[in-house]
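Thanks for the sequence, V.! I ran VCBS repeat-containing protein right away. Repeating your input here for the record:
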Amino acid sequence: MAARRLPARVWHGPARRVWLALCVWLALLVPVAAGAQDIVSARYTDPTTRYPHGVLGDTVEHAGLEVTLGDGSRRTLLWPQEIVFEDTAPRVMDLSGDGAPEVIVVESDQNLGARLAVYTMRDGALTLFAAGPFIGQRFRWLAVVGAGDLNGDGRLEIAYVDRPHLAKTLRVMRVERIDSVNHVLREVANRPGLTNHRIGERDIAGGIRDCGQGPEMILATADWARLVAVTFDGTTTQARDIGRHRDRASFAAALACE
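Predicted structure:
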């Protein structure tokens, strides 16, 4: 299913306070099925227009990342002026294999553009777990495809399209341990000529499916003429044509294995 960006809006005064209060009330109604300090959900907060890229249909991004924990409490990370979250929504998944989920996000620096980053809970605080490199230029972005064990070896990968409007290159990243605390996102494969987003679209097309033969990443060719299914064997990627691209319904059918 495509990752859709919720309509962005800068909330002011009472309306924003009422909305936040409602969110807290709803969170308290959710049954706790995880450890007290485990992340169970995440969302972007604190809308800002300080990074007016507009790649996702408007110039409103977010300065904050808020997670809800298993005990119903919340933790928030607020970036200073230099960085925003430029993304459709954060993704919660256990990447470390320890049973406690992490959060996958896209961050953009005022001068260096976007990077893929992963956050975790450590010592009661929301902390950077691992990150890839910034692209290196302002207003350069990446669009997440998805995350999962793409080759069945028990390790999880994160896939994204690097600059889906320019470089149009699929990159597969893996979390690797540096020491007992620190980790890094290391690229393990890439494939040019693929994309999943056009400027101004509020969602990211495609994703990851499993139609019984293992995970496949569903993307479009660089010219948006065809859909392709891409597999990763642990070292390289393979792509096969799965039909003509018409619109988002084409992606929906492919993801549903139709």
